[in-house]
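Q: what sequence does this backbone want?
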């Protein structure tokens, strides 16, 4: 098992143990750990859609915040307790019901704080649909 595989196992375990059941129902799947962050897949789900088959912004925000934490868990090689202290989300185009891909870039990861940039795309489309910047405090 590689270090990347270990990180994915840690992220999956943390997701199943530490997050509320409704967050687990988002079916977030860690796909890869990169040098600067991580990549995730969120499978299609009609339960995340609002009128017109558009994935609702609340779901996208929850996904962004959750995968930011998971990327830090994967990179830190530990399960330090953290809390979100700030989050800014921008919605640039609709995400239609279907598979979603998300990339986390860790901008900083210090002793007390971390900052992550999350880009969310429709699977197979290079255009960013939503982006978030999240700041986390280590407790």
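A:
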């Amino acid at each position: 098992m590689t270090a990347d595989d270990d990180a994915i196992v840690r992220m999956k375990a943390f997701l199943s143990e530490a997050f509320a059941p409704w967050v687990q129902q988002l079916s977030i799947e860690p796909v890869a750990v990169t040098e600067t962050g991580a990549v995730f897949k969120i499978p299609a789900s009609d339960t995340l859609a609002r009128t017109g088959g558009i994935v609702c912004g609340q779901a996208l925000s929850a996904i962004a915040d959750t995968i930011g934490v998971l990327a830090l868990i994967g990179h830190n090689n530990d399960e330090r307790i953290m809390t979100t202290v700030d989050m800014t989300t921008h919605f640039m185009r609709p995400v239609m019901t279907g598979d979603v891909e998300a990339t986390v870039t860790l901008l900083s990861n210090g002793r007390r704080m971390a900052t992550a940039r999350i880009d969310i795309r429709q699977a197979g489309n290079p255009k960013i649909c939503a982006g978030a910047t999240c700041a986390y405090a280590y407790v």
